Amino acid sequence: MSDPAQLARDRAEIKDLMGRYLFAMDWHDTEAYAACFTEDGVLDYAMATLTGREEIRRGAEKFRDAVGDLFKREDGSPALLRHVLDHIVIRVEGDEAWTTAFWWEMTDGGPGRTPEIQSFGTYEDELVRVNGQWLFRRRKIYNELIPGRETPAENPVRHYDAAAQAAAKRN
């Protein structure tokens, strides 16, 4: 069993990483976005599976450039895009961790620039501690509004509990 103080630090650092990832995405900071991943990290999302920080950074640039075309206000101007994260489950075993969480994607594209939910889904992550810093080794993004990208029917927490238990036995 882990030291409770270390586990609390690990969980706080992982939640911080998850928040930094979303702020980087919503403010189109492609360097900070890519820095959330290991050098050989994998981002699996609706448009592609990207491997390595450089490829992930380029993918973030493409997303940044497409946001204005994807999300519009009533007057046709680009909508402001923001993500919200909730229901975060974190499992830590030594220098490995697994998370799953719900996400919502909102814009100010509703009537009178009111909030409008554009999409929602879940994240499933594998993380690793590198030189004392938690990073995504793999992030899979499920999107409930895209056929074929929906979250699997099984409770995703069970999958990561099993992965954490296997890691605990290895260590």
Short description:
The protein is of the alpha+beta class.
- Percent of sequence in beta strands: 35-45%
The structural domain count equals: 1
How far apart the termini lie comes to: 11 Å
Strand order across the biggest sheet? 2-1-6-5-4-3
| CATH topology (fold) name | Nuclear Transport Factor 2, Chain: A
Share of helix, binned: 25-40%
Mean pLDDT: 94
Could you tell me the number of beta strands?
6
CATH-derived architecture = Roll
Number of separate helices: 4
Q: What is the radius of gyration computed over CA atoms, rounded to a whole number of angstroms?
A: 17 Å
3D architecture notes:
With 171 residues, the chain is α+β, with helices and mostly antiparallel strands. The protein has one domain: Nuclear Transport Factor 2, Chain: A (Roll). 36% of the residues lie in helices and 37% in strands. The chain is built from 4 helices and 6 strands. A 6-stranded mixed sheet has the order 2-1-6-5-4-3. 23% of the residues are buried.
